[in-house]
Specification:
The chain is an alpha/beta fold and 341 residues long. It is built from 14 helices and 10 strands. A 6-stranded mixed β-sheet has the order 2-1-5-6-10-9, with helices on both faces. The longest helix is centred in the last third of the chain and has 19 residues.
Amino acid sequence: MEPHRVVVLALTGLLPFELGIPHRIFGRAKDPAGRPLYEILTCGLAPGPVRTDADFAVHVEHGPELLATADTVVVPASHELGPVHEHGTLTAELAAALTHIRPGTRLVSICTGGYVLAAAGYLDGHRATTHWAYAEHFQGLFPAVRVDAGVLYTDDGDVLTSAGVAAGIDLCLHIVRRDHGAAVANDVARRTVVPPHRDGGQAQFIERPVPEPQLASTTAARAWVLDRLHEPLRLSDLARQEAVSVRTFTRRFREESGVSPGEWITRQRVERARQLLEQTDLPMEQVARETGFGTAQSLRKHVQAALGVSPTAYRRTFKAGNGAGTLPSPDGPSVDAGPVH
């Protein structure tokens, strides 16, 4: 198979960090034989230097005609979008460039790159996100877009958007996972030294992302849980690992992670189930026991809610050696975690 071609559109005023994310994440994805799964190329509105928001420019070899060859187009953030940001309208040059994109091409934005997709009409009727600081302005400018400022990224099939900076990493890893499964995405994450999975539905902006100095974190409890996902888990057990009350533990956990302990545990169990479905032939009842869901029916309920397909369909798509998957994925698990158990 030919590698999936990703074309990154570099616009004046771009942020170098965001420009590098697709190259870093997609460029590390390999098949079992070590062959690259993606080809990543960069284009501008014209070949030549593109000014960044730093004290250097980047030289782009390709013009916008390259967009016509893309399977996926990524638009990173820029701080100089002009009328796109001010009035929600494309410049003539940018509008002409976007006409090269073929129907059916997957479209991805990182941070304020979503303004470009929205101004072109690609986000009309879709759920989308952007950096929390711009969400209100974005929604006012593009009322036809369903803006969700409280998530890291959204996945609406062939239109995907992310919040600012590091959320672009999360989105690109999500795309690798969607295309090729958790094993490939986890390998990319290990090589990049980033967490393998932050759910798209996770809060993008937590009021106190860093615990107060006098407060202990919940790291020990999380590590303890990951070794015991197959066991019944109670909030009191988790709180005991940090030597605090259940009430204090629950508050600290939400402050640090943006979700409840129950929701976090359910997500870890789903992630463990993905690995077992991809890498083993264990029957569903055993997968359910190994992941703490108890029964195949409970496993099916949570996997279906999180991934949009049954465990059997997920295994059929992503079982090791089956090649690239084509599994659609929702915006991230919308599970009812319920009580910790």
